[in-house]
Amino acid sequence: MKSHSRASEQLDEDLxxxxxxxxxxxxxxLVIKYQHKIVQxxxxxxxxxxxxxxxxxxxxxxxxxALGSFRGESAFYTWLYRIAINxxxxxxxSRSRRNVDMQIDVQDAEVYENLPQLHGQETPERExxxxxxxxxIKTAIAKLPEExxxxxxxxxxxxxxxxxxxxxxxxxxxTVRSRIFRAREAIDNKLTPLLD
Length: 196
What we know:
With 196 residues, the protein is mainly alpha-helical. It is built from nine helices and no strands. α1 packs across α2 (24-43), α2 packs across α3 and α2 (24-43) crosses α4. 23% of the residues are buried.
């Protein structure tokens, strides 16, 4: 797996070099390679599918314009990932300025939906509790400070390792661990009254 990953990174480096030398078609290959992953990432932030497509496209345009200054200090995908996250965040900030609430997708709460307390016979009370838990988690995630929210979402919903999150967020691994710990603690504090 490591050798495949390294080969993929080497291919990216070669394509980036070609783009920097004026070969625009090389960038098309990078877009094709990563468009699905970037759209999936943006979907975690931007609920509307057509809007998330636009935001992902904007991220690729920003990356293309900035590619001249890309120095290869991180993997191309890590660099692109950061741009996509920032583009999605900027979109959400501009949207919230237009008095539209930022929405966290119900999928973001899936990790908590399978709590053992919710299994067994589905009664109206259990269904209500399940909905309350999902809403509580959505609200708790939305209220987290941005760094904690991004870290927990990358870990729980993107399945990234602490090292990958550290690269994507451009901070030490220890900081990532701390942010994720504090995010989980904040979510747990909101859930505890419901589960007691």
